[in-house]
């Protein structure tokens, strides 16, 4: 058990700053592996295929569902998102920690399949701040921003389903808190108390 890597599942409303927290966490923990999801969403400016996401068609996504190729998948604001299973399982077996950045439905699927996973909900400091960040980012049309804000409210209302809630008031502090939770989870699993 203790030789396996830790599976870390982080959900956060879009615009909450989770990409910055992840970048900081990856600097702090160089062996942490980011799981690249597949999605049917179109790439945003600057996003690269195979690095940020695997950008695939609905047909290919649905074929992968039938092949049981996803650890979890969900539909979010009109697009499919899913975690390819094989890479995650191989990395965990080889002792690497794996980080999943996924939404609530997918996180709950992972928790029920992998009870040892560490689940964290990353909260924005406030909904006003989230709206400000989403609007400022300017990558989505106003109606999509509104859709994402409604989705964010729905997601925040489910935060108690996670093992821990971390407020992203400050990137370094939030990353350090998640890093400490990873260490605590490893210690608990090694001691066999979970
Ligand atoms: P975005 O379009 O802003 O990149 O992501 C939208 C939402 O999809 C975010 O909440 C993100 O965490 C989630 N997401 C990204 N990859 C996956 C995945 O593989 N599975 C699930 N269930 N959600 C994902």
Would you give an account of this structure?
The structure is a single chain. By secondary structure, this protein is α/β, with parallel strands linked by helices. It has helices spanning 18-28, 58-66, 85-93, 104-113, 127-137, 142-156, 171-191, and strands at residues 7-11, 33-34, 37-39, 53-55, 70-76, 79-84, 98-101, 118-123, 164-167. The relative contact order is 0.22. The model has no long low-confidence stretch (mean pLDDT 93). It binds guanosine-5'-monophosphate (5GP). Guanosine-5'-monophosphate (5GP) binds at residues 14, 37, 41, 72-74, 76, 81-83, 101-103, 105-106.
Key terms:
194 residues, alpha/beta, Rossmann fold, five-stranded parallel β-sheet, four-stranded mixed β-sheet, 7 helices, 9 strands, 21% strand, globular, binds guanosine-5'-monophosphate
Distance between the termini: 11 Å
Question: How many distinct beta strands?
Answer: 9
Structural class category: alpha/beta
- What is the beta-strand fraction? 15-25%
Provide the CATH superfamily. P-loop containing nucleotide triphosphate hydrolases
Bound molecules: guanosine-5'-monophosphate
Secondary-structure blueprint:
Blueprint: E1 7-11, H1 18-28, E2 33-34, E3 37-39, E4 53-55, H2 58-66, E5 70-76, E6 79-84, H3 85-93, E7 98-101, H4 104-113, E8 118-123, H5 127-137, H6 142-156, E9 164-167, H7 171-191
Parallel strand pairs: 1-7, 1-8, 2-7, 3-4, 8-9
Antiparallel strand pairs: 3-6, 5-6
The protein binds guanosine-5'-monophosphate (5GP).
């Amino acid at each position: 058990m203790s030789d396996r890597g830790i599976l870390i599942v982080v959900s956060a409303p879009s615009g909450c700053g989770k990409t910055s927290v992840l970048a900081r966490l990856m600097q702090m923990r160089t062996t942490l592996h980011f799981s690249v999801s597949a999605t049917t969403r179109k790439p945003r400016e600057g996003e690269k295929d195979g690095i940020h996401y695997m950008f695939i068609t609905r047909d290919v996504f649905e074929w992968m569902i039938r092949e049981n190729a996803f650890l979890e998948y969900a539909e979010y604001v009109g697009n499919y998102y899913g975690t390819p299973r094989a890479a995650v399982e191989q990395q965990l077996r080889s002792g690497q920690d794996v980080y999943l950045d996924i939404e609530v439905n997918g996180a709950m699927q992972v928790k029920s399949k992998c009870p040892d996973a560490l689940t964290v909900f990353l909260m924005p400091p406030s909904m006003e701040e989230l709206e400000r960040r989403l609007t400022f980012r300017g990558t989505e049309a106003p109606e999509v921003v509104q859709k994402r804000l409604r989705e964010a409210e729905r997601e925040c209302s489910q935060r108690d389903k996670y093992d821990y809630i971390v407020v992203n008031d400050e990137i370094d502090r939030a990353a350090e808190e998640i890093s400490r939770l990873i260490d605590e989870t490893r210690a608990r699993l090694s001691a066999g108390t979970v």
